[in-house]
Fold this sequence. Notes:
The protein is mainly alpha-helical. The chain has one domain: Methyl-accepting chemotaxis protein (Helix Hairpins). The protein is built from two helices and no strands. One of its GO terms (molecular function) is transmembrane signaling receptor activity. It is found in: Membrane. It holds the Pfam family MCPsignal. Keywords: Transducer. InterPro entries: Chemotax_Me-accpt_rcpt, MCPsignal_dom.
Amino acid sequence: MASRISSDTQASVNDGTRVIDGAQQEIRHIAAQVSSASGQLDELQAQVADITAIVETIQSIATQTNLLSLNAAIEAARAGEQGNSFAVVAQEVRQLAQRTSQATEDIADTISLLQNLTKGAHSSMHVCLDRVENGVRLAGDASTAIGRISANADEVVDVILHMSSMDEDAAAQQVATTRQAGDPVKA
Length: 187
């Protein structure tokens, strides 16, 4: 009986250990995926920084173009009647520069939003990685605890077997003593 209990306990321990090992593997896979996504967010942040630099260059060009168109309008006004067609062109260039400037501001706002979102996602992923590492540690602790339970169960079974053996020895001794005394013993 004790042997059967020991076998059943060991089978349960093995099942529990297998489940915990599987959970640890899955948690490690999750950690790898989160880490990969975090790396991709880092790359996205770098690309957004590059786009920001390009937008700043475009904004600078738009500002310079606006100033040039303003200077051209002044020169067209000085030229009088001969500068009227040039003044129209200067005005169109100025409007294009203003539209470009507005578009770059809109792009900059969108980029700022993207940067905030990626920073938030990056921060959340680091929290997830910390939690995953904690989960792996806890699963390892559970595996260790199951191992101790198994060892303790084996000790209990050994004690029971030892006590059972002692009971059998005591019963055999009693039979032997009774036989020596001459009393018939029924087996």
